Amino acid sequence: MVEKFVGTWNLVSSENFDEYMKAVGMSFASRQVGNLAKPKLVVNVGADGVISMKAESTLKTAEVKFKLNEECDETTADGRKAKSLFTLENGKLVQTQSWDGKTTTLEREIQDDGKHMAVKCTMNDVVAVRTYEKSA
Questions:
Q1: pLDDT at 136
Q2: In CATH, what class is 2-134?
């Protein structure tokens, strides 16, 4: 099921992302970088079942490797040390990320056309949606 997420995805739109980054606690400087970055998301699955998700931009690259339903350590693009748990729920790849007593949720969902992925980022009552398009 996770195979449909495999590939290279380019950011095509971003809604309310600055407010989300603010809610997460990112500094103004980090948010400026975050707003400028147009990351490419590269998702791979290894033969051992380990999934690699790499966000690459001209400014920063961050990668997390994980197995479904197993908590992993993650260093976020803005330098936070977090624990993440990835699960598959109703066809969505759901990431729950926790650090310093805070929790955020990122839901990745492939759209009906199979060529777009929506990433819904939720922190408390702030929701941002980032849309990626699959590279040919």
A1: 72
A2: mainly beta
